[in-house]
Amino acid sequence: MISYNDLIEASKLHSEKKYKELIEFFVKKIPSKNIIEFVTKLKAEKFIDDKSAIKLNTNKGELLIYKENFLKDLPTYSENNYIIDDYFITIGYPSVEFFSDASFIKKIERNGTVAFITKDNHEDVPLPLLKKCAPYINEYKEKLNNSYVYYINDKYNSRFIYSVNVINYTIYLCMIYAYENLLDEQLFLMRRCNFTYQDFNNISYEQFRKYITLLIKSLKNEQPSR
């Protein structure tokens, strides 16, 4: 679960334009084996029921993005094995921990020695070998690039492209709120209901909204009638 305090921290990072740290924050919070699993888990955190929606302001008014419109045509995970220059290479959809063509390479095996490719060793992949893997990597990249972050219709849509910016945008849509507003409402609940800061580590955004709604309703009922 992404807690209310997590959203405060994430929104703070976004407001400070610390986009690299923002991705790293959610990579730790949402452990995933690949980029598809990562964004799918983000989607699950955002769309908890059929009424959940992302609101975007356009020049013609408010645009609502529902679950069925989000991450449209995203491929399912797959990987394949290839023999290139006596190397046995496994290629699949990339990790979200680092952004590079080498991220599509899952492991390289030769003469019984296996190297799993990670953010710590991906620069060790020989460039000539990486270039020979490019046609196979591009097949996966094209499938990602043929999907959408969201698709309402031909006018209102946003392409999914394998890039840091698109992952940051996906995080923004799912997890980022106005930082100062989050703090103000948290302080309001702490003052009125004796919540502690630590309590918000165990409260989701949706639970928080319910508490706020109930509190406001209770305060209105306490007002003397005129």
Characterization of the model:
The protein is of the alpha+beta class and 226 residues long. It has two domains: 99 residues, no CATH class; 67 residues, no CATH class. 44% of the residues lie in helices and 18% in strands. The protein has seven helices and eight strands. Strands 3-4-5-6 form a four-stranded antiparallel sheet, with helices on one face. It has a two-stranded antiparallel sheet with strand order 1-2. The chain starts with a helix and ends with a helix. 22% of the residues are buried. The model has no long low-confidence stretch (mean pLDDT 94).
Structure in a nutshell:
By secondary structure, the protein is α+β, with helices and mostly antiparallel strands.
Summarize this structure as a short list of keywords or feature phrases.
2 domains, four-stranded antiparallel sheet, elongated, alpha+beta, two-stranded antiparallel ribbon, 226 residues, 8 strands
Structural class by SSE content = alpha+beta
Helix and strand sequence: HHHEEEEEEHEEHHH
Number of domains: 2
The count of strands amounts to 8
